[in-house]
Amino acid sequence: MIHVEMLNHKHVLAKIEVSGTQERIGVEKRNQLTYAFGVKGSARYLIHMPISPTDDPWKIEFVEQNPLFSETDLAKSSVDESVKVALQDEVSSEGLKLISCLPEGSYLICRFPDCGTITRKVQMGNIFENLDFDAMVWGKSFRLSLTAFGESRQKLPRTSPILIGLTLLHFTGCSIEDRGVWLFNPFQGECESKSKNTIAVLPLSGELVLGFFSSLEEQQKEIYQRESHQWQVEAITEIENAF
Asked: Considering the entire predicted model, what is its pTM?
């Protein structure tokens, strides 16, 4: 079930609450500092947290042999009627089906004003790294880093039909107000976008919200919980101010 609350903001279209869905997109913990993200059971990306968030970068690894969603895969997914009614004017049918594959949690459906800037110099935490592959970035705020990655090191990020985010709390290690959102297109087919803007799903809560302290000892998870709560309170303002 997905509950949709439409919002009257320039860049944030709606807030959705997901419970009891098909959960075909998700995160799997591989070790204390590594998480796999993508199609459940066959994740395309490995996210490596830094040992020291102020000194070391976050890293991404592509597992190219693992598949993305195909048209056949998405044909098996049903679209929640509330999502279809609320978002069909902005989001393509493929995008609506991907939203219906999200794990339980809260999310913002956002509208970015363009396709972003292609670059290899990317904020990877408290460090700007010169990558050996292209990424796409948006915004002008250091407090909220928005970056999309392609399906492999050789391919540019694609923004259609929709980008699914992975929220990274305590991104720089310097302040709980510094967050990163890494964005991915889990669909391998081609489709036309209904919007001239980029539509992105930014997680507020649930397994698609990671933080440095989420992987550590039990007492330090309280820090993650505080950071997660503050992100939920501040997210809309931070997104609106990012452009």
From this structure: 0.92
